[in-house]
Design brief:
Two copies of one chain form a homodimer. By secondary structure, chain A is mainly alpha-helical. Helices cover about 65% and strands about 5% of the residues of chain A. Chain A is built from 24 helices and six strands. The first copy, chain A, has helices spanning about 5-15, 20-25, 30-40, 45-50, 55-65, 65-75, 80-90, 90-100, 105-110, 115-125, 130-135, 150-160, 185-190, 195-200, 215-225, 245-260, 275-290, 295-305, 305-310, 315, 320-340, 350-380, 385-415, 425-445; strands spanning about 140-145, 170, 180-185, 205-210, 225-230, 235-240. Chain A has a three-stranded mixed sheet. In chain A, strands 4-5-6 form a three-stranded mixed sheet. In chain A, strand 1 (about 140-145), helix 12 and strand 2 form a beta-alpha-beta unit. Chain A is elongated, with a radius of gyration of 30 Å. At the A-B interface, helix 12, helix 13, helix 15, helix 16 and helix 17 of A face helix 11, helix 12, helix 14, helix 15 and helix 16 of B. Chains A, B: Acts as a magnesium transporter. Chains A, B: InterPro entries: CBS_dom (IPR000644), CBS_dom_sf (IPR046342), Mg_transptr_MgtE_intracell_dom (IPR006668), MgtE_N_sf (IPR038076), MgtE_transporter (IPR006669), SLC41_membr_dom (IPR006667), SLC41_membr_dom_sf (IPR036739). Chains A, B: One of its GO terms (molecular function) is magnesium ion transmembrane transporter activity.
Chain lengths: ~450, ~450
């Protein structure tokens, strides 16, 4: 049975008030699916279904719900029920939730946690939005360096239930300074009497609370870690970041790149869940800037008014020429931006990119110019000179567009800007102006205008 | 010490022939870093460094090398050394390598594996390129349902060394049919005398050998799995897929989307490592198609030649108008494409998208039209009617562009095409034609041309 069929079955059971079967079916589901089901339900039914869940599952489902649904449930349940859920939740999920909830609800949530948790939550909430601290969790397994493998495994079995992962254990000294890391794999594959300090990795890859989460994602990606330790300025272990949160970071960063590259201010929300006025606001800024920058192309065109009133045919090719330039430029900029995101291209590779785009544009420009020449030569008999102007303009535009498109994202990086803003929309605007200028200069020479 | 500093140190040690220290330093590094260091070295030095590595580390480093470097090393080492490396390598890495190596080298590699491995490699090589089978590995841990927790843990400790992950164990029956899955976490957190079949998840999420790897990535992403079992048509467990390979799949798919959205044929290679002629070839196809589709805008413009020779000022605003349309359209199409990739937007949401884009475009179009009217009214005194034409054209273009931009990616999906091709370049071309038509029709009415 796939997810949709399961949802249909659950809805039917709910409608027929067959709560016992419903409960049996629902606890078999993954918490992600249960959350999605609850989000689909009207308020009263959502709370009925939520109350069916056993305690730990309820906490997992709750952590997966979107803020609105969390809020609705908090509103309906007792303080005691809320306390149970909060007890079972991981710190990173709790902090994520707190960041979104309105102040009044946060107050009630904090009231229902114990004092230690309250302190940790307040500390975690202070970490900057994009920092490692903002995505870490406080529940990890720590071992002592002098434990034997047997002691370590027993310790994990006894105390591990609250840890977000058991698969990496962190070795700390009495001041909580991070000394090493050991995987559960290493523990299990070694003899019981071996000592943790002999087996652990002591040159630990770690991140600092204030490190940018994108840099943390890069480490996970490069080395395939399951989790990474987060330390404070005294090298004390304060939390861990797990791969599942990093997958979300990677996905959000990619979405942000797509949005930036389409000249939209990133919203951090799913498309269908963003109100129309908010989508409009995020898009208007760049649309306006780019529209007003049309003053440049307008200026160029009005300077050459005499040329195109003398030979109106010249106007016919303007959209084709500017589009080809825009496309050629955004091909280059997109590939370079993506290469920079993947750390395949560094700022120091500037000359390599320049040389590569130059060769690519020579090949592509020549090809397009020839195709264009042949096509127009046949379609516009007797206009050989105009056809030559258009073809030469295409050749030069492709070269210019690709070189500019390849270099601008790198220039952005040098000036500490996100390379993604140097994408199609901006490149198109810049290349448009250059290609129109070229076109009319060539027309002036060849057609004696 | 960061990666660059380490590399400098290693290079210095290598230059000074201080091999003992070099070896000590190098075995402390992560295999990913060692691979990158070896790839930077000239051939003779690369093989010296590679031979310093202990056996298991050598296999891990080897698996991380790019094909060219692997080939150089295979060429230099003895059959016995090659056999040792192959023994230690995981099946998925071996198959990845085989797919890239030239036939002669593959032959030599196969000769140095045992018969069982050779059979598995040959079977794995037959799975289609984008299938689950092509990214799975054959080394997993399997348990029997009637084992106790203690027996299971002992079994894993004894037989787990060759498994790619110990953290999910698969329960199979005597016909290798998949019966359940149990995490190492569950095993460790339960009492020694509990029975695996009582603890395991028996409604196992699994994928079929021929499933598309993008669908597999979606499952990992939705449910945060560490690994998923792969079964054949008789439901027999044939391999597993681990999260690290899925991160690569996700990254490749995203790169492919970026390439497609920039009207480039995906190359599957890093930018700096793709030869110029290959980059040119991947870009020329769409550039040519889009350039030739300029015949449409050209046709429209030549139909209205009389209009713009009568009022040449109209030409001045063409690039601004078409760019605004292109940008407005690609904002919509990019967000919808990304939403579809993330499974946030389904084809059945078509009406919702239409309604949303319609409202967004009303707001954005009105705003842009007003700004434009004010700007042009000031800049072009006495041309109120032309200014009105341009502003109305912008308003209508933004609406058209956003609705078309929002719907075309969904239409692509209906026709089983990748929505990513309905991105900026194609949308721009389509919207250009529509906006120019609108512009001159409006000009005809309002200016009586």
């Amino acid at each position: 049975m796939n997810f949709e069929e399961k949802i249909d079955l659950l809805n039917q059971l709910l409608e027929e008030n067959r709560f016992k079967t419903l409960r049996e079916e629902i606890v078999e589901l993954n918490e992600v699916d249960i959350s999605e089901f609850i989000e689909m339900l009207p308020k009263e039914k959502a709370i009925i279904v939520f109350r069916f869940l056993p305690k730990d599952l309820a906490a997992e489902v709750f952590a997966n719900l979107e803020t609105e649904a969390q809020q609705r449930i908090i509103h309906e349940i007792t303080d005691q029920e809320l306390g149970h859920i909060l007890d079972e939740m991981f710190m990173d999920d709790m902090v994520d939730m707190m960041e979104e909830l309105p102040a009044g609800v946060v107050k009630r949530v904090l009231k229902n946690t114990d004092e230690a948790t309250r302190g940790t939550i307040n500390a975690f909430l202070k970490y900057p939005k994009d920092s490692a601290g903002s995505i870490m969790t406080a529940e990890f397994t720590n071992l002592r360096a002098n434990m034997s493998v047997k002691e370590a495994i027993n310790y994990i079995r006894k105390h591990g239930a609250d840890s977000e992962t058991l698969y990496n254990a962190y070795v700390i000294d009495s001041n909580r300074v991070l000394d090493g890391v050991i995987t559960l794999r290493t523990l299990l594959l070694n003899r019981d009497d071996e000592i943790v300090s002999d087996l652990m990795e002591d040159d630990v890859t770690k991140v600092h609370i204030s490190d940018d989460k994108e840099d943390v994602a890069y480490l996970f990606n490069r080395y395939d870690y399951l989790s990474l330790p987060v330390v404070d300025s005294e090298d004390r272990l304060v939390g861990i970041i797990t791969y599942d949160d990093i997958i979300d970071v990677m996905e959000d960063e990619t979405t942000e790149d797509f949005e930036l590259m389409a000249a939209t201010i990133p919203s951090g929300k799913a498309y269908l869940k963003t109100p129309a006025w908010e989508l409009a606001r995020n898009r208007i800024v760049w649309l306006t800037v780019l529209m007003i920058s049309g003053v440049i192309t307008g200026g160029i065109l009005s300077r050459y008014e005499e040329s195109f009133t003398a030979i109106p045919l010249l106007v016919t090719f303007i959209p084709m020429l500017t589009n080809t330039g825009g496309n050629a430029g955004s091909q280059a900029s997109t590939l370079v931006i993506r290469g920079m995101v993947l750390n395949e291209i560094e700022v120091s590779d500037g000359l390599k990119v320049l040389w590569k785009e130059f060769r690519v544009s020579l090949i592509a420009g020549l090809f397009l110019a020839v195709i264009n020449y042949i096509r127009l030569y046949i379609s516009y008999p007797g206009q050989e000179k105009v056809v030559l102007v258009v073809s030469l303009a295409i050749f030069a535009t492709v070269i210019l567009a690709k070189v500019v498109g390849g270099l601008l994202p790198m220039a952005a990086k040098v000036f500490k800007l996100d390379p993604a803003i140097m994408a199609a929309p901006l490149i198109t605007t810049i290349v448009d102006a250059m290609s129109l200028m070229l076109y009319f200069v060539l027309a002036g020479w060849i057609l004696n205008l």
